[in-house]
């Protein structure tokens, strides 16, 4: 089988971000259309797949807890897109995006670092009707602009708001990268 063709039709998407920001919830909402209120920490890394009209992708959910944060280069190899997630109500989860971004770029092929497709998601915008936000939309957009115009989405995994839109962009962005 032609390897390049295979790569183009099966996107490897890696989701990163601090523990509790809602990575697993976003994926569950996107893939199964379900929201689970009860928090259960992801252990190591898990993955689910979803067939899309536009393409197939394999999404790698990861654990934000520090004791699992050394997944290694093998895990990141061949990634087509990286989704960074933070919680708009938790400043620290926004500040650590820098580390997640750097850590990811360290693991991918250096030839790729310049134009590697990232997407940023600011999750949990439903909480307190937006009154407990710790990071403004403008601040997040500025961060994205400084990182080479990363697409930015604000979502609620709980209310199923903007989740499909964000993941559709993941497919498009991952496909243009080759
Ligand atoms: P780790 O696996 O530890 O890295 O965490 P995670 O990023 O996968 O977080 P997870 O999806 O498990 O969500 C953590 C908690 O936040 C859970 O109790 C979810 O129900 C809740 N949660 C996730 N997304 C939202 C959201 O959009 N709105 C609200 N209100 N709660 C959310
Ligand atoms: Mg999780």
Automatic annotation (TrEMBL):
Location in or out of the cell: Cell membrane
Alphabetical list of InterPro entries matching this protein: P-loop_NTPase (IPR027417), Small_GTP-bd (IPR005225), Small_GTPase (IPR001806)
Keyword Protein biosynthesis listed: no
Classification via Pfam families: Ras (PF00071)
A GO cellular component entry from the record: plasma membrane
GO biological process: protein transport
Top-rank taxon, per record: Eukaryota
First-listed, main subcellular location of the protein, grouped into a coarse class: membrane
Membrane topology: Lipid-anchor
UniProt keyword terms in alphabetical order: GTP-binding, Hydrolase, Lipoprotein, Membrane, Methylation, Nucleotide-binding, Prenylation, Protein transport, Transport
GO molecular function, one term: GTP binding
UniProt family annotation: Belongs to the small GTPase superfamily. Rab family.
Known role: Protein transport. Probably involved in vesicular traffic.
Protein name: Ras-related protein Rab7
